[in-house]
Each structure stands twice: as C-alpha cells, then as structure tokens.
Amino acid sequence: MKIGAMVPQGWRMDLNGIKPEKQWDAILEASTKIEKLKFESVWVYDHFHTVPSPTQDPTFECWSLMAALSQVTSEVRIGQMCTCNSYRNPAYLTKVASSIDAMSGGRLEFAIGAGWYDQEYKAYGYEYPSAGVRLKMLEEALQIYLAMTTQDKATFEGEYYQINQAINQPKPLQKPYPPLWVCGGGEKVTLKLLAKYGDYGNWDVDVDGFIHKSKILKEHCNVQQREYSEIKKTLHTNVIIGDNQKDLDNKLKKIIEITGIPEEMYTSKPLVGVKEKVFETIDEFESVECDYLIAYVPDIVWGDTLDILKNKL
Predict the structure, then answer these.
(1) How many domains does the chain fold into?
(2) Burial class for 159, CB neighbours closer than 10 Å (0-12, 13-18, 19+)
(3) Under 8 Å between Cβ of 86 and 206
(4) Residue range 65-83: average pLDDT?
(5) Helix 90-103 vs helix 62-72: angle between axes, to the nearest 10 degrees?
(6) Which domain holds residue 289?
C-alpha cells in the first residue's frame, strides 16, 4: 500500500498557536519531513476557511500552496484532497494543474469532487446549486480536463461550461495526463463518474464501508464496460497513533486543546489507536484492495505519529 500525508495547512486548525510569521515554516518542515521519510506523496486541502466553523485562523490556499511545494520538494508526489470543482472554471483549473505538473517534473495528482461546504460557498460568493447540478457540473469539468490535457485545441459545449479551441501549453509532463482522482462516495452518481472517467477513487470509511463502496464501484464498471481493476481504490482518514494507550490519550488531549475540535471527530475514525491496532487495521484495508492511504496526521507539527506510520511503508 502506498501512503501519502497531508501537510498542516490551517483548515483543520493545525496551525493554531503558531505565530503567523512561522506558519509557512511549519508547512515547509512537514513537507520536507514527509519526503525525507520516503512517503509517496504530500497533500493539501482545497478550502478557504477553517472547519468545523469559520475562524480567523489561517487556511493556506490549495493550488498556490501546491505550486510552492513543487519547488521545495524534489521526489514526493503532490496532490490535493480534493479540489472543489465549483471554485474554479475547469479550463482555468486544467491550465493551473498542467503548469504545476510541468513545474514539479511530473509529480502532480489531480483530485476533484463536486464540492460540499455550503457555508464556504456562501461566504465567498459562489452559487450553491443542488447536489444533482453540482455533479453534472463535475462531469462536464472532467471532460474538459481530459480534452485540454490531450488535445492541442480543445472544444466542448456543455450545459454549464464551454470552451472553444482552448490551447493548454505547457501540456502536463505525465501522459496522457496527471492521474485523475474522482473523489467522493456518492453511490448513484459519483461512483458512476469514477467508473467512467477516473484512475483513482477515494473514500473516508471503515473496512466494511470500503468493501461496500468497492462493490458499488464494480457494478458501475460493469455498466460502463470499464475494467474494474483499472481503478485504484484509496482511503483518506485521520491517523493518530500511540505507542501505548497513555501515549494515545496524551496526543488526543493535546490535539483537542490546540484545535478545539471534539474528540469523537478523531476517535470515530478507523486509524486512530495504539500502534498494534492501527497497523492491524491498515493490513485489513490492504486485504480488501485498498491501494493507497492518504493520512491526515493532526500531530504532524509536534508529535511522532508520522514517524510511527513510516513503519508501514
């Protein structure tokens, strides 16, 4: 199983308490540590202000952050979990993604979803249409991404987006395009879009949930006449590991004090626990064909969960 890790970015209050002039240093240190420890990838979130409620704490912007990380790392892959389609015109987004793939030497992972954080939409002046409309917009965006990364002049006429002989240079270095992650667990539409267009799917579920999502995805692949084995299935979830119960309790206490996020938002996740139990659960995920773990490590700035997790590489 490949393993990537999120950098501290502020969205989940993980830069809380760090002086503004030191926050970028914290992001850099985490990114270089992830690379030095030989994890597969570094990841960022695509959000504008903090969760679960808006605060004045920082949230570094996703794509500008990836552009910067492409220049301060050299081997680790770079992804976002995941781009909100509604926040950027898809032709513009494809242009940005292609540029960063070129800037990074071909290390970009392109992950996208329909969007969900309604409060954030309203705060920044984005229209928040129904889920059905957002998913239709996502499908059109996927088609534009595929066209602009593979064609010299791309034309698309959709209900929500149109392009006319759009030129996208530089093209991505990765061919035919940077791996396309269609993120989200919606079983009727999102998994159908994954079966139709995606290289990777990503879910935040327990092992039973992973088995269930995989079954639904396979059914969509059959309908779409797509080889199920072509799609990699991945997990994105909180990872907090204690050497023992006391160590875990101390980490959880400090995380909650720093972030103000309720403890159950961590302890309800499958990879929060003592080392032996977490490693056992990772093995269970791998046994049901989980190809990749994207770990959000809340103590990455000050703790040792990332160092413990390295033992599963």
Answers:
(1) 1
(2) exposed
(3) no
(4) 97
(5) 10
(6) 2-312
Q: Give the pair of three-digit tokens for residue 176.
A: 């035919």
Closest by CA position to 214, among listed 223, 202, 224: 202
CA–CA distance, 62 with 60 (Å, rounded to integer):
6
Which secondary structure element, helix H or strand E, spans residue 218, and what is its range?
Answer: helix 207-224
pLDDT exceeds 90 at position 109: yes
- pLDDT for residue 59 is more than 90: yes
Task: Look at the block and give the residue holding tokens 């639904």.
Answer: 216
Q: List the beta bridge partners of residue 232.
A: 200
The CATH number of the domain holding residue 213 is: 3.20.20.30
Residue 52, pLDDT > 90, answer no
What pLDDT shows up at residue 88?
Answer: 97
Listed in sequence order, the residues at least 6 apart from 71 whose beta carbon sits closer than 8 Å to its beta carbon are 103
The β-bridge relationship of strands 154-157 and 162-166 is antiparallel
pLDDT at 166: 98
What pLDDT, on the 0 to 100 scale, is given for residue 53?
A: 86
**Is there a contact between 4 and 275 (Cβ–Cβ < 8 Å)?**
no
One-letter amino acid identity for 287? S
Q: What is the per-residue pLDDT for 257?
A: 93
Q: Is 93 helix (H, G, I), strand (E, B) or coil?
A: helix
Q: Residue 289 and residue 293: Cα distance in Å, rounded? A: 11
Radius of gyration (C-alpha) of the chain in whole angstroms: 19
At 301, list the tokens.
């700035």
- Token code pair at residue 264: 């159950």
Identity at 246, one-letter amino acid code: K
Sign of CA dihedral 240, 245, 251, 255: positive
Spatial separation of the C-alpha atoms in residues 79 and 254, rounded to whole Å: 28
pLDDT in tens, 5-34: 999 999 999 998 899 999 999 999 999 999
Contact 201, 233 (CB under 8 A): yes
Question: Do 275 and 248 touch, CB atoms closer than 8 A?
Answer: no
CA atoms of 304 and 218, how far apart (whole Å): 37
